[in-house]
From TrEMBL:
PANTHER family: ARSENICAL RESISTANCE OPERON REPRESSOR ARSR-RELATED. The keyword Transcription applies. This is Transcriptional regulator. Coiled coil: none annotated. Keywords: DNA-binding, Transcription, Transcription regulation. Residues 1-95 form the HTH arsR-type domain.
Amino acid sequence: MEKLQALDALSALSQQTRLDVFQLLIRHEPEGLAAGDIADKLGVPQNTLSTHLAILVRAGLATSERRSRQIIYRAVVPTVRGLVRYLVDDCCAGHPELGRRFDYGEGACAPGTGCKTPVTENGSS
């Protein structure tokens, strides 16, 4: 991930409603959620929500797909992984073994997220 991509993602997540939406989408991976369901679950008016969803999509943190009369939104997990890796890439002052605690691996989720593939704090399953 490049610096501008990281800034876009961090900017998108720096607003409370967008962060709530994004966390909800992460919890509903991989099936995603319809825009109306997101609005209902968060108590956000649909017109306000569509603005927030558009910002998340523009930042590469979410995707949308039309399924008949609904638009389904999903989190883009690889973007999140890339952002975390970008943020912690130089965290360990030349000791890469210390950074392993941040690498949750392909298909894994952080502890406490409710994902079906939990990992320990050091990144192992």
